[in-house]
Structure formats: structure tokens, C-alpha cells
Amino acid sequence: MLQDLSISGFLLSCPAQLNQHKPLMIKLPGLELLTARIMWSKDGKYGCKFDRELYPAVFDHIVRESKR
């Protein structure tokens, strides 16, 4: 489950063990496929950083849409 989305990354909760040396590919509604790297992990939570930060306008759009 993707949580705490920001312009630079997100928190991912996942019961599976993820390989910290491989990039993650995520798809957010209305956006192209995004790549991110796991920066840290603890107890099934992963701090991830986008390879390219989201544009502020794109981030604002995602936040607005999530509140609908």
C-alpha cells in the first residue's frame, strides 16, 4: 500500500520482502510509469525516492483527485 506521497517519494507498506537493489516501478492514475529506489526499510515499511521528482502541479493534481 502506497502511503505518504510527496514530490520526492513515498512510504510503501508491503508484507513481502523487497529487493532494495532493484528499482520499483509504480503506476499512479493518469500518470506514466514511474521509477523509484528504496532508500530504507523497517518492519515491512519502505521509504522510496522517485528517480525524478514529481512536478508540483502534478503532485497537487494527485492530492486533489485523492480527496474526491
Walk me through the structure.
The chain is α+β, with helices and mostly antiparallel strands. The protein has one domain (2-66). It is built from one helix and five strands, in the order βββββα. A five-stranded antiparallel sheet has the order 1-2-5-4-3, with no helix packed on it. A hairpin with a 5-residue loop joins strand 3 and strand 4 (33-42). The longest helix is centred in the C-terminal third of the chain and has 11 residues, at 56-66.
Describe the structure using short key phrases.
5-stranded antiparallel beta sheet, 40% strand, 68 residues, alpha+beta
Write the layout of secondary structure elements.
Elements: E1 2-3, E2 9-13, E3 24-27, E4 33-42, E5 45-50, H1 56-66
Antiparallel strand pairs: 1-2, 2-5, 3-4, 4-5
